[in-house]
């Protein structure tokens, strides 16, 4: 059976001598239509692809020598005498055949080359050839390292899990009026039924817990926070009260506690400001001003100094680029700037680090960190530790770690909070509450991979009583 409308002339496609391919016995065969008769596809002698040399073609490559595809002027090849529509269909058909056979010729610089050759960046050097300098890099500067050896791999972002990754979910059919009745009974009379409070709060999402404050006052004319404070004590009380606040109210109160008083919890400031989205930071700053009568920026300015103050103020603006696309050439330029501001400079230009780490998008910065390591052979965190000290060093390193892999950053924070003689319960409570509905499953996974022990097990061994029971509810299970 012939293919409708193809080939248009008798004698197969293409009809003229000098077409593609020009040899006798080429593809498609002579008169007789499609599919070909004896000899099958591809034809044995001179067929497509060429017998000698295999694919890709020999010296001369693609396009073919004179008379091949595309034809020279007046050669009579394709497309010279076919109607435009039929010629396009013929060309499309050839493209499909070539792609099915493994690609269309050898692309420049090994990009997309057949045979599984390493690819690297588009336009990069072939394997074994030196990588050219970064754009704008001083080509003759002996102190500027080359771009690593071999062909670099593409920047790898942390694995993104689909779906909900929290440990606390909405409880089906939860009713605030029934829930506050449970809480009231748990606190009424002699003693307190802590188990009832744990069972209730540990099985409600934040959006189901927060309305309980208003429902309690509406039903009983009393303040839920006041009653809980009078009934509970210690870390269990702190954890319960934290769970009844909205995320932004809780963050604002944590920032307030970190700033006020004699000392400053710099790690808390960095943790919150480096891990929240622009919208979350803006909401936090609004609540902070409304609750405490002072802007967050003013509070930071009066309690910190130097480049660490600038870092915190930059983060507190909530103006980070949040685009997901990455411009690799711009990432290379930013990596250059960071190298020139630190490792390749006497002294350190902290302002350049501040400008890039606080303004660029997180996907872009992950690409920058990759390019930086390829360029100078050192991770960004290690370069910062070599170039900076004190709070600005710990702050910059925390920003880099959080951007690289947020769950791993929080796993490290939790491990440090429970490591050693004492437990930093404020940090433990803050992270367990704030991440329980975001990425707690990923944090648990990172914890197990990094420390060889489940987060659930570590909490069980480092805390006790009702406090431990409610923390384990937030953890969600062992790994």
Tell me about this structure.
The protein is elongated. The model is unreliable at 1-84 and 98-157 (pLDDT under 50). The longest helix is centred in the N-terminal third of the chain and has 17 residues, at 84-100. The chain starts with 83 loop residues before the first helix and ends with a helix. Among the domains are: 1-32, no CATH class; 320-404, Annexin (Annexin V, domain 1, Orthogonal Bundle); 406-479, Annexin V, domain 1. It has helices at residues 84-100, 176-187, 194-201, 206-209, 211-220, 224-231, 234-243, 247-259, 266-275, 278-292, 296-303, 306-316, 328-341, 350-359, 362-376, 380-387, 390-404, 406-418, 425-435, 440-451, 455-462, 465-475. The chain is built from 22 helices and no strands. The protein has 479 residues and is mostly helical.
Question: What percent of residues are in strands?
Answer: under 5%
Treating each run of at least 4 consecutive H or I residues as one helix, how many helices? 22
CATH topology of one domain: Annexin V, domain 1
- From the helix content, strand content and strand pairing, which structural class follows? mainly alpha
The top level CATH class name of one domain = Mainly Alpha
Question: How much helical structure, as a percent, in the residues?
Answer: 40-55%
Whole-Å distance between the termini?
63 Å
Helix-strand string: HHHHHHHHHHHHHHHHHHHHHH
User: How can the largest sheet be summarized?
Assistant: none
Mean pLDDT, to the nearest integer, reads 78
Give the uncertain stretches in residue-range form: 1-84, 98-157
Q: In CATH, what is the homologous superfamily of one domain?
A: Annexin
Q: Tell me the total number of β-strands.
A: 0
CATH architecture of one domain: Orthogonal Bundle
Rg calc: 33 Å
Silhouette? elongated
**Assembly context of the chains:** single chain
Protein name: Annexin
InterPro entries: Annexin (IPR001464), Annexin_repeat (IPR018502), Annexin_repeat_CS (IPR018252), Annexin_sf (IPR037104)
Family: Belongs to the annexin family.
GO molecular function: calcium ion binding; calcium-dependent phospholipid binding; phosphatidylserine binding
């Amino acid at each position: 059976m012939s293919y409708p409308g193809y080939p248009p002339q008798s004698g197969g496609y293409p009809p003229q001598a000098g077409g593609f391919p020009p040899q006798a016995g080429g593809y498609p065969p002579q008169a007789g239509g499609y599919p070909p008769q004896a000899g099958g596809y591809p034809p044995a002698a001179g067929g497509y692809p060429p017998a000698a040399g295999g694919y890709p073609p020999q010296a001369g490559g693609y396009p073919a020598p004179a008379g091949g595809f595309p034809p020279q002027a007046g050669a009579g090849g394709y497309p010279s005498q076919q109607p435009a529509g039929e010629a396009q269909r013929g060309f499309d058909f050839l493209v499909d055949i070539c792609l099915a056979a493994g690609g269309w010729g050898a692309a420049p610089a090994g990009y997309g080359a057949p045979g599984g050759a390493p690819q690297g960046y588009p336009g990069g050097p072939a394997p074994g050839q030196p990588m050219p300098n970064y754009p704008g890099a001083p080509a003759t500067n002996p102190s500027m390292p080359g771009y690593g050896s071999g062909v670099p791999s593409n920047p790898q972002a942390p694995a993104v899990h689909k779906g909900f990754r929290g440990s606390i979910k909405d409880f089906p059919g939860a009713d605030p009026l029934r829930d506050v009745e449970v809480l009231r009974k748990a606190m009424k009379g002699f003693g307190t039924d802590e188990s009832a409070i744990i069972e209730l709060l540990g099985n409600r999402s934040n959006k189901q817990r927060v309305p309980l404050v208003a429902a309690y006052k509406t039903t009983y004319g009393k303040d839920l926070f006041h009653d809980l404070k009078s009934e509970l004590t210690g870390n269990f009380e702190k954890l319960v009260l934290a769970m009844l606040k909205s995320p932004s109210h809780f963050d604002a109160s944590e920032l307030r506690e970190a700033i006020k008083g004699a000392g400053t919890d710099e790690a808390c400031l960095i943790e919150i400001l480096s891990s929240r989205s622009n919208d979350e930071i803006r909401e936090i700053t609004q609540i902070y001003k409304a609750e405490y009568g002072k802007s967050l920026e003013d509070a930071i300015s009066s309690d910190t100094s130097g480049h660490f103050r600038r870092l915190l103020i930059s983060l507190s603006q909530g103006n980070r680029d949040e685009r997901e696309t990455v411009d690799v050439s711009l990432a290379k330029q930013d990596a250059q700037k960071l190298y020139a501001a630190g490792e390749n400079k006497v002294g350190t230009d902290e302002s350049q680090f501040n400008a890039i780490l606080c303004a660029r998008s997180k996907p872009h910065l992950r690409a920058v960190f990759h390019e930086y390591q390829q360029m100078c052979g050192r991770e960004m965190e290690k370069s910062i530790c070599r170039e900076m000290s004190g709070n600005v060093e710990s702050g910059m390193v925390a920003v880099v770690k959080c951007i690289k892999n947020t769950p791993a950053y929080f796993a490290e924070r939790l491990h440090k909070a429970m490591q050693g003689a004492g437990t930093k319960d404020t940090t433990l409570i803050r992270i367990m509450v704030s991440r329980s509905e975001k990425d707690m499953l990923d944090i648990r996974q990172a914890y197990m991979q990094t420390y060889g022990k489940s987060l659930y097990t570590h909490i069980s061994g480092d805390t006790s009583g009702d406090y431990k029971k409610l923390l384990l509810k937030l953890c969600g299970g062992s790994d």
